[in-house]
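Structural prep section.
Before we set up the soaks we want a predicted structure of the protein with protoporphyrin IX containing FE in place, mainly to decide which crystallisation condition to try first. Input record follows.
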Amino acid sequence: MERMQGEGEVDHLERPSPLTDKDKVNIQDSWAKVYQNCDDVGVAILIRLFVSYPSSKQYFSKFKNMTELEELEKSAQLRNHARRVMNSINTLVENLENPDKLASVLKLLGKAHALRHKVEPVYFKFLSGVILEVLAEEYSDVMTAEVAGAWTKLLATIYTSITTTYKEVGWTTLSSSTG
Ligand code: HEM
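Run finished without errors. Recording the tokens verbatim:
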């Protein structure tokens, strides 16, 4: 069953605080391990999103009607998006010291998802929660409370930046005008 919107577990994503130097090192070190299994982890994250929040499949023309897990796992569109998500996160992690680059990558992402793919911003919040969940499960040795805290901050920054871009491109007007 679809999880409820606005669950407490992801509420903290709305209150980002700046990354400390220690946070940056924690993110980079843990990501280096995760990124070694880029394809598998990316697919695991997206599958978890689509299983926990089935309505998130609506945006993907090729698998929006798929319900079988095995079928979903094989979808080229799912695997491509998994790779794109992982590569984008990799770019962000590589540029933690470069706020201008971070801002421009996030702005492009926000624009593409708002204007081209028309994804409701709440799905970015769901995806952030799912990323934290899957990393905690699959990399429990690496994801100490401190490391998880650093990731929570980064994901909160991503979410805030995406929602800011959505507002800039007029998403509020768009959704209220279409009911
Ligand atoms: C951290 C979060 C995310 C990242 C980094 C990300 C990244 C990307 C990238 C790089 C692309 C391809 C470039 C483009 O079209 O501009 C893309 C396409 C797309 N994204 Fe995302 N995405 C994220 C979250 C989401 C979410 C939450 C959804 C919907 C539930 C979504 C739906 C889509 C769709 C439908 C496409 C087009 C797919 C296609 O053409 O096959 N994305 N995403």
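Observations: The pocket of protoporphyrin IX containing FE is lined by residues 56, 59-60, 77, 80-81, 84-85, 88, 109, 112-113, 116-117, 119, 123-124, 127, 158 (CB under 6 Å).
Flagged for discussion at group meeting.
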